[in-house]
């Protein structure tokens, strides 16, 4: 309602400059020696050929405009990324996570090879891209994290609290993965890695190194069916070593017995693995140190935690592709099976994986984008990050399939008979076993676990940053200056929450987190977020915000509108139905999870979602006014919604800036017209003037208009009183602004 175009501003300002000589004569001042501080006016005023009046602070001015062209942060209160590369690496590190190595290769292996890429890429555009676009745009536009960004629709502020709560679960989950990886990494520094042989106390009697390896060591003959015949010359006896038993390989025994000290069930808590507990502590200390200076320190850590894994991945892939059986396995598993495209279950799996692959709806994208500069080209960033995410997933497939080929060669298994599992089993059992058979195994195993550790650490780092920044943005007066205390408290709390997962039953609870807490609640949040932004705030407003940032709308404007308003809600509902209908009883190996543990997992998963209606009701209750006014306040954006800096708000809405309002309302404006417009428009637009206040404003304006008429417009004090009155009645932003 207060928007004014540059053309309209130019016309009004032109009239003002034409009468500037008469005004100077009436006010008794000369233009000589008039030094105007251009930083006090909207940026586009500098491009106009007009004589600006000098400026006097009148007491009703909130802030001058910020200086954003010099060296340093654009937002000096909240901070920004040091440069563009810090920001891009942070987004890539947050999105291209460990799922590219333990989930996507399994889906390609299971669902038709390269043919699976077609439903995956389609669902990436329909399910992941819209939410990724929305969170990146709104985070950068408002410079707000997961909670404060919901000033856009205050009724749904609970979504922000739900995202922070889920980020807490993610923080614990990724920390345990980091601790397991660190445990493996430390034990890789030896001449013979522990899971490469059966000469260990935890190996057991049925430990199997692989049929081919055993045959070679015993000078036996390997048969086509995978069995091995060993002839003993001394006793004239022939021993047949049966087919391989992948449940007895040393890497699986090592993972269960030595690393996890795995118990018999979810309710058998067992003992605490103190070595694993120390790894948890070390990982949390690393997160604390990396976030100690906020995005200034984490923006430098990403150069190691994001770039170095790509280098290691290239080395490992090059080495594995040179091993026996690797090339044939890659060609076999990537060969497309087009019949899977007619299977709706495959499309459902592709939609779920595409949605999770960009790490949306956990608040992290809001947070990372909020530290970017306002006019950063977010369109290019979105395309680049999604391309990198797909590229990393494909490289993860090549790494896994080459390892499968080498393992099948060592165990004498036919490729069509080989079966793998996703999740923890793929990374910590299968890939660890494959690398144990590579020459110079400690080197390549160490590189592999360094890569996994850095990838998980990058994701965990920004998950914790999301929690800390969201709390500091929501309660800036109390927490922003004490950000390090908030970070210390959050890390200490999560250390206490992570230690129970180091018990013998920790793996079972991690499985419950994976299957319930970190899955379908994100889809529910995505649906609610999509409806709130695209239907209540308005998809046109959101796309206008994107245009304000970049300077132009995204290409195919109508496509984006249809995608956001109609296709996205249907896709998210379909994904949610698929997850619920595809649910089966949970099991790990041969262990069936008891019914009470599944109910507990459902209850824990519901905690973030319960916050949404609770906080929505609270927002409605604390809103002022009648029932209608309450709905108006909770469904329309808050007064503080918009760009964080005044200089950016002035680009589109100069009337919201006190300095610009004084320029746009010169003394030549008729007082009667101003009074009529304010009485008619302000109560409708702002909803803050009651009848009493309107009459009081009318009386005040009449009195001041009388004084102006008597004075004949010749006293500058009259101009001051008029400007002060108008600036007082027009709604203002109550927002921190850097000076």
Automatic annotation (TrEMBL):
GO terms for biological process: acetylcholine transport; amino acid import across plasma membrane; choline transport; positive regulation of locomotion. PROSITE patterns: NA_NEUROTRAN_SYMP_1 (PS00610), NA_NEUROTRAN_SYMP_2 (PS00754), NA_NEUROTRAN_SYMP_3 (PS50267). It is a multi-pass membrane protein. It is found in: Membrane. One of its GO terms (molecular function) is metal ion binding. InterPro entries: Na/ntran_symport, SNS_sf. Pfam families: SNF. Disulfide bonds join 198-207. It comes from the Eukaryota. Keywords: Disulfide bond, Glycoprotein, Membrane, Metal-binding, Sodium, Symport, Transmembrane, Transmembrane helix, Transport. The chain crosses the membrane at residues 87-108, 114-138, 159-186, 272-292, 301-334, 354-372, 384-406, 426-456, 486-510, 516-537, 558-581, 593-623. One of its GO terms (cellular component) is plasma membrane. Na(+) binds at residues 93, 357. PANTHER family: SODIUM-DEPENDENT NUTRIENT AMINO ACID TRANSPORTER 1-RELATED, SODIUM/CHLORIDE DEPENDENT TRANSPORTER. Belongs to the sodium:neurotransmitter symporter (SNF) (TC 2.A.22) family. This is Transporter.
